[in-house]
């Protein structure tokens, strides 16, 4: 069930946030609903507001306009803090603490603490409880941060590029841990990442930010199935008028286009089904989706070059244990 009345893990209405020092909007007029029980890929180019959005959802920032809700509660309130966990890019931890001391602190701060779950995440990374955090590699510190987050048994887990410092093998293992968590406990996960091929294997919902707004927010399989790659003669481009052309290219007399179909195709086209990665890359490219005959990058009723600028996508943060 989706829509305004569906149970939501994350919901934004007219959400906006501006960094005063730079005078730029990181998010503006942002509307979306992420349903519960999904592993959501939060995707966008640098500076579009991904980190800002997660910091707002985690209660580390407050909206400058509109509203954001997590699990139908206000971020940062006691009701939200007990149900939501956030792991930020910098993953600040006390370097002099041992792993054991860190997990003990997590137990004191969280009434729903699951020590066995936290220790399992740590030991799967061959980390000893006696190790000091300041002596661990970045990848192992990431595991400890995730152990803190998963140990509190959150209903919503927010992850801001948590695995950027991990090699592919370790990333795969941690993603498997997250998928198990979601399957066994119904945990909703919102994961910001630039590694698009991995997202296709793990995420079943997609939230795409562009220019500080939600450009796409929908089921990952439905998004992929609604797009097709077509190749045909360039002189029959008018046959695509009923569809949204996300990306197009012409070579000689041949036209290749990625479409969001709005019904049956007219004309003689070779049709293939794109991967989710290809769909996302097309929507993130510089050229805006447009109908044939309209200027790329121009939304209806909008002059080219207007609209809010994007601000920095990060802020000082903490692991919300």
CATH class of the largest domain: Alpha Beta
Order of helices and strands: EEEHEHEHHHEHEHEEHEEEEH
Whole-number mean pLDDT = 85
Main sheet characteristics:
6 strands, mixed
How many β strands by DSSP?
Answer: 13
Please work out how many helical segments DSSP would assign: 9
Q: Per CATH, which architecture of the largest domain?
A: 3-Layer(aba) Sandwich
Spans with pLDDT under 50 lasting ≥5 residues? 287-321
Enter the CATH topology name of the largest domain: Rossmann fold
Total domain count? 2
Distance between the termini: 30 Å
The percent of residues in helical segments reads 25-40%
CATH homology-level superfamily of the largest domain: P-loop containing nucleotide triphosphate hydrolases
Largest sheet strand order = 5-6-7-3-8-9
Percentage of β-strand residues: 25-35%
């Amino acid at each position: 069930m989706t829509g305004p009345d569906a149970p939501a893990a994350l919901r934004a209405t007219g959400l906006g946030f501006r960094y005063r020092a730079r005078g730029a909007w990181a998010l503006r007029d942002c509307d979306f609903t992420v349903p519960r029980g999904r592993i959501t890929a939060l995707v966008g180019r640098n500076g579009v507001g991904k980190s800002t959005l997660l910091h707002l959802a985690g209660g580390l920032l407050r909206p400058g306009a509109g509203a954001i809700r997590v699990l139908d509660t206000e971020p940062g309130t006691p009701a939200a803090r007990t149900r939501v966990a956030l792991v930020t890019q910098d993953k600040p931890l006390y370097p002099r603490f041992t792993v054991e001391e860190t997990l003990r602190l997590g137990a004191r701060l969280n009434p729903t603490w699951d020590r066995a779950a936290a220790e399992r995440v740590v030991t799967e990374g061959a980390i000893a409880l006696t190790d000091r955090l300041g002596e661990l590699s970045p990848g192992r510190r990431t595991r400890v941060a995730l152990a803190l987050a998963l140990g509190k048994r959150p209903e919503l887990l927010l992850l801001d590029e948590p695995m950027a410092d991990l090699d592919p093998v370790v990333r795969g293992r941690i993603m498997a841990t997250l998928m198990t968590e979601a399957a066994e406990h119904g945990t909703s996960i919102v994961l910001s990442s630039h590694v698009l091929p991995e997202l296709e294997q793990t995420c079943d919902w997609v939230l795409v930010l562009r220019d500080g707004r939600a450009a796409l927010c929908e089921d990952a399989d439905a998004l992929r199935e609604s797009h097709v790659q077509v190749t045909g003669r360039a002189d029959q481009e008018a046959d695509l008028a009923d569809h949204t052309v996300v990306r197009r290219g012409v070579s000689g007399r041949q036209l290749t286009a990625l479409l969001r179909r709005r019904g049956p195709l007219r004309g003689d086209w070779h049709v293939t089904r794109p991967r989710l990665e290809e769909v996302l890359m097309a929507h993130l490219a510089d050229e805006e989706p447009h109908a044939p005959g309209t200027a790329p990058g121009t939304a209806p009723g909008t002059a080219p070059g207007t609209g809010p600028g994007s601000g920095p996508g990060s802020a000082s943060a903490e692991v919300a244990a």
